[in-house]
């Protein structure tokens, strides 16, 4: 299977993108059902905001990366921050859409045969949906802090479970042709005590947990600091646009 996927990587990318696109349309359909009788202009503003924040998330994912000191193939990046913010502003489906759109755009640039993108998709959806659902019910500064704490917990649990159950076996199969010794050799070059008996536990304890803890705390802190300013800016723009529309409507009525 690993050999087949390596030989048909383009097909894998296409299928992955198709899956993400389907999920995007499903999320849009759910959003339409949940948003009720919003005006057309309000819907347009919402989708423009989603597009803008998705556009911010993509370069943060592709270019703004810092190698994790212990295992340098793990990259610290902050692309989930725009998803957190749009989730706070517009709700869970909007945050999920940013994650899905970012993933679909970044798949063609994968260097991990889509394994890294799959991991970030799982983690991004779990963290964004958790934070935005909680904040939706508690729209205060304290609510934002609590939602980010719970999203960090969801992030870590998802990262650990996904790595053990799916991502690590998949990565070894695809990147090392199912050669466990090759993967262990890569890990032991950074931490000499890692061997074929303890590699899973050691990788989770030394790599997965501290790496994801650093990223989730950093992204949560950044979101908490900048969200209110961006929220005020968004509300002001929305208010100005609403006034402009009302003025146009009044002018039309007079004519």
General description of the model:
With 255 residues, the protein is an all-alpha fold. It has a single domain (2-240), classed as Orthogonal Bundle (Arp2/3 complex 21 kDa subunit ARPC3), CATH 1.10.1760. Helices cover 80% and strands 2% of the residues. It has a two-stranded antiparallel ribbon. 31% of the residues are buried.
Write a concise keyword list for the protein shown above.
255 residues, mainly alpha, Arp2/3 complex 21 kDa subunit ARPC3, two-stranded antiparallel sheet, 2 strands, 80% helix, disordered C terminus
Top CATH class:
Mainly Alpha
- Tell me the structural class: mainly alpha
Number of E strands: 2
Q: Segments where pLDDT lies below 50 for 5+ residues?
A: 248-254
Question: In the CATH scheme, what's the topology name?
Answer: Arp2/3 complex 21 kDa subunit ARPC3
Which overall shape is indicated by the principal axes computed on the Cα atoms? globular
Question: Helical percent range?
Answer: over 70%
User: What's the average pLDDT?
Assistant: 84
Domains, number: 1
In short:
Helices cover 80% and strands 2% of the residues.
Helix and strand arrangement:
Layout lengths: L1 H6 L1 H27 L4 H23 L3 E2 L7 E2 L3 H11 L1 H15 L8 H23 L3 H35 L4 H9 L10 H56 L1
Antiparallel strand pairs: 1-2
Helix pairs in contact: 2-5, 3-4, 3-5, 4-5, 4-6, 4-9, 5-6, 6-7, 7-9
């Amino acid at each position: 299977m690993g050999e087949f996927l390596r030989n048909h990587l383009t097909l894998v990318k296409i299928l992955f993108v198709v899956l993400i696109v389907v999920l995007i349309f499903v999320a849009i359909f759910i959003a339409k059902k949940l948003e009720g009788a919003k005006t057309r202009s309000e819907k347009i503003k919402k989708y423009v905001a989603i597009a803008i924040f998705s556009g911010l998330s993509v370069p943060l994912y592709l270019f703004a990366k810092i190698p994790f000191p212990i295992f340098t193939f793990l990259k610290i990046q902050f692309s989930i921050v725009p998803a957190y913010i749009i989730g706070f502003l517009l709700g869970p489906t909007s945050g999920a859409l940013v994650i899905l759109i970012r993933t679909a755009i970044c798949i063609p640039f994968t260097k991990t045969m889509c394994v890294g993108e799959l991991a970030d998709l799982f983690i991004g959806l779990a963290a964004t949906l958790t934070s935005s659902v909680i904040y939706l019910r508690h729209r205060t500064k304290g609510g934002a802090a609590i939602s980010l704490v719970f999203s960090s917990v969801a992030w870590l649990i998802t990262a650990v479970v996904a790595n053990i159950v799916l991502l690590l076996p998949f990565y070894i199969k695809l990147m090392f042709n199912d050669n466990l010794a090759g993967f262990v050799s890569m890990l032991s070059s950074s931490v000499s005590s890692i061997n074929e008996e303890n590699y899973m536990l050691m990788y989770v304890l030394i790599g997965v947990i501290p790496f994801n803890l650093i990223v989730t705390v950093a992204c949560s802190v950044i979101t908490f600091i900048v969200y209110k300013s961006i929220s005020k800016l968004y509300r002001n723009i929305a208010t100005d646009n609403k006034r402009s529309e009302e003025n146009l409507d009044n002018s039309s009525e007079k004519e």
